[in-house]
Amino acid sequence: MRTEYKHNPPIPYSLHDMRVKKIIMQDQTIVLEFEDGYKKLTETFEQVEGNITIEGVDFDFTSVMLQSKWGNYGKFNGEKLELEHFIKRYKNYNFEIVDELYGYNQVLYSGYLSILETEDLVQMDISIYFTGRIIYDTKE
Questions:
Q1: Is the pLDDT of residue 135 over 80?
Q2: What DSSP string runs through the chain?
């Protein structure tokens, strides 16, 4: 017997090349505030202003992974942080999302952290385990 499967959740917006300017932790939620919103995945494919709220977050299984400087291959010294520690350490940044991956109760956003006082770009992943909803709050 052959069983095939391709996971393709019907997400309404793309975060590709969008920049997170702030991450807020509240109770069991995470709010991602974006500089310019995100792109609709329906006809007109326009960019809309908005933020994202992720509900039912388990912060024990949510982390930020800082890897190498942008474009570097080979060995590197990375750092894994609890989300709370990342938020306390980095106040003036943006995180450009390049890839977004959705699995069972989990989302992974990968991209580049830009620390605004420097010219450095650091490869970054944020992994979020949640049991609630992802809410796209738009200004349309």
A1: yes
A2: -----------SEE-TTEEEEEEEEETTEEEEEESS-EEESSTT--EE-EEEEE-SB-GGG-EEEEEEETT--S----EEEEHHHHHHH-SSEEEEEEEEEEETTEEEEEEEEEETTSS-EEEEEEEEEBSS-EEEEE--
What's the number of CA atoms in the CB half-sphere (13 Å) around residue 137?
10
pTM of the model: 0.90
Can you say how many angstroms the Cα of residue 125 is from the centroid of all Cα atoms in its chain? 7
Q: What tokens were used for 120?
A: 């450095």
